[in-house]
Amino acid sequence: MASHHPIMTLDELTAFLDREFPQIHLGGRTYFVDEIGPLTARMRMDYHERHLRPGGTISGPAMMALADLALYAAILAHIGPVALAVTTSLNFNFLRKPEPRALVAHCRLLKLGKRLAVGEVSISSEGSADVVCHATGTYSIPDRR
Amino acid sequence: MASHHPIMTLDELTAFLDREFPQIHLGGRTYFVDEIGPLTARMRMDYHERHLRPGGTISGPAMMALADLALYAAILAHIGPVALAVTTSLNFNFLRKPEPRALVAHCRLLKLGKRLAVGEVSISSEGSADVVCHATGTYSIPDRR
Amino acid sequence: MASHHPIMTLDELTAFLDREFPQIHLGGRTYFVDEIGPLTARMRMDYHERHLRPGGTISGPAMMALADLALYAAILAHIGPVALAVTTSLNFNFLRKPEPRALVAHCRLLKLGKRLAVGEVSISSEGSADVVCHATGTYSIPDRR
Amino acid sequence: MASHHPIMTLDELTAFLDREFPQIHLGGRTYFVDEIGPLTARMRMDYHERHLRPGGTISGPAMMALADLALYAAILAHIGPVALAVTTSLNFNFLRKPEPRALVAHCRLLKLGKRLAVGEVSISSEGSADVVCHATGTYSIPDRR
Could you tell me which residue ranges the Thioesterase domain spans (chains A, B, C, D) (predicted)? Predict the structure, then answer.
């Protein structure tokens, strides 16, 4: 069913997300798909005060939303526009406090099955190699015919 | 260090969260601690369009934010106001699509150690027994003297 | 597809596990399904030196094997004998060191879908209410016709 | 406290594991630390019938035991021989059925903190690039003086 190579371009993927999930841009666009590759994707979340916790650090929920959206985008890029893929589980380890800067989510798909896709994400502050949050996620893929 | 009985009242806990995390009420108050008991807590998240996904369902990130906040509040209620307790890991299973209604998070603390607290949360739509999202979380507790 | 009530008896379930998974009894029978109820099951693992770590505590892998087997049995009891149900993910929190005694796994099924079943397990030492290990698991259910 | 470079050699690490965890070799030695590097380690588990499930596939619990041991060894290699480091949580995604062959666990440490170490593991069949099981784990590190 699924190839190891993306079948959507960056522009197609961005247009699909904008159309199907307009609410992620509420309050101003902060999510950007930066790159798609074989079983990989990279998404950026710009720094915005709505993502903050006191002390200037970026909130856990903001990182969780980024990880989920980035994995979802990575999967779509490889299986094509299927608005109904559904997150079934997510696991997060929070490793360091992120600085008040853009975050970058590096996704790697571990499995693209007929019914289930699984991937991992490492989130770092832009320009840093330190992982601030690591996540794995599983997504259920609807039957198609 | 930690008792099996809460040491903060509902009002004290609510006041603490309001003071330390004002940003959770951005756009209108939707989170309410409804009950605290021995190793348990219940938090409600009112229905609000900023928590939605297309189709009227409540978004995964909104449920994740609720689970994290509810567990955090449950722990604080039992160890006292420690703004620096830190989420170290979270695991989520998404079981059903929630209806466009208030969600209720039922927390149970499984461990209240000197350095680590662990709890689980079952989130249901208000008035329903079906769990829409189940989460477990671990929190690091700072040294105190 | 799945009812909230078990459709296998204790004896049928035990016979099925013995037939399909004889290797779990290698070195002597230590696993026993003790009870099945609506969306619940309880499995015991007797104390045996092959489950130990130095210091007399029961090893993490022994608890993980128990959790997986108990959840698997709980699901089978509710969907009928399907040897091909497959574990897709497991999450564990290790809360306390278990004493050198039998362990009891209390399972609760959170979802019994057509393709996916999800449950949680709390493992305690026999006769104790303290949870030593908590787990959640998801299982893929094969198509049937 | 912890360096990004291992401070134990392969031989020292193997000798430590043999001395502290003799029971992992019960029934014949199957675990071998193959390599240690900066924040990485690789462990092999040889094919043995005690790791099997019917159909010739390697059991989930055997993979979970390998992941836990490999992460534990990777952490020890970087913080020195601390027999009391304790697994606090583990998360597994099972991606494919492993073939009846040796498994190789590739570990990467994501965090080596004063109190907590976090790492991920990708397990593949020897000679294959396909990940059959992915795990993340967190380990509590005892206070030292």
Answer: 55-128
Nearest by Cα to A120 from B107, D106, C26 = D106
Which residues of chain C fall short of a pLDDT of 50?
Answer: 1, 145
| Interface with D, mutate which of A93, A96, A115 (most D CBs under 10 A) | A93
Interface-testing mutation among C88, C109, C124, C134, with chain B (most B C-beta atoms within 10 A): C134
Q: What is the CATH number of the domain that holds A117?
A: 3.10.129.10
Does residue B145 form part of some domain?
no
Answer whether C25's CB lies under 8 Å from C18's CB: yes
Read out DSSP for D85-132? -EEEEEEEEE-SPPPSS-EEEEEEEEEE-SSEEEEEEEEEETT--SEE
Split into its structural domains, chain D has a count of 1
Domain for residue D2, yes or no? no
Interface of C with A in 58-87 (CB under 8 A): none
Confirm or reject contact between C134 and chain B (CB < 8 A). yes
Residues C74, C66 contacting (CB under 8 angstroms): no
From A34, A44, A115, select the one nearest A77 (Cα to Cα).
A34
Q: pLDDT category, D10, cuts 50, 70, 90?
A: very high
Query: Which pairs with CB-CB distance under 8 Å and at least 24 residues apart come from A52-59?
Result: A52/A100, A52/B23, A53/B21, A53/B23, A54/B20, A54/B21, A54/B22, A54/B23, A56/A99, A56/A100, A57/A97, A57/A98, A57/A99, A57/A100, A58/A98, A58/A100, A58/A103, A59/B23
Give the residue from B45, D108, B68, D76 showing the smallest Cα distance to A92.
Answer: B68
Min distance B128 CA to chain C CA atoms (Å): 14
pLDDT one-digit tens code per residue, D28-53: 888 999 999 999 999 999 988 777 77
Q: pTM of the full predicted structure?
A: 0.94
Q: Within a domain: residue B136?
A: yes
Judge whether D97 is closer than 8 Å to chain B, CB to CB: no
Return the DSSP state at D52.
B
Q: What is the ipTM of this complex?
A: 0.93
User: CB–CB of B60 and A20 under 8 A?
Assistant: no
**C44 domain residue, yes or no:** no
pLDDT band at B1 (very low <50, low <70, confident <90, very high): very low
Domain with B97, as residue range(s), is 10-38+49-140
